[in-house]
Specification:
- It is built from three helices and no strands.
- By secondary structure, it is mostly helical.
- It has one domain.
- It is elongated and about 45 Å long.
């Protein structure tokens, strides 16, 4: 993985994807469109949506380049073993 691939594909595009997901959840909260967030009958849809919103703000899926290279190498080894 080159530095361009890491910064452009992983950091930049991944960061914007997380921002878009958080904004979508925030829009659902503001428009009271949180009926799809409850999984069980006893769950409160508003509380579930609010929980997803706060969890999405603290979620960071950006990894260091070295870690991604190691995961990529393991994936290639695993796929070649099949």
């Amino acid at each position: 993985m080159t530095y361009f691939d890491y910064y452009f594909h992983h950091c930049w595009i991944g960061g914007w994807r997380e921002i878009a997901n958080t904004f979508r959840i925030w829009c659902d909260l503001m428009t009271s469109n949180y009926t799809d967030y409850s999984l069980l009958h006893e769950d409160d849809p508003y509380e579930e949506c609010l929980g997803w919103f706060w969890a999405s703000l603290g979620k960071m899926k950006l990894y260091q380049k070295l870690s991604l290279n190691i995961y990529n190498r393991w994936f290639k080894i695993f796929m070649m073993a099949k």
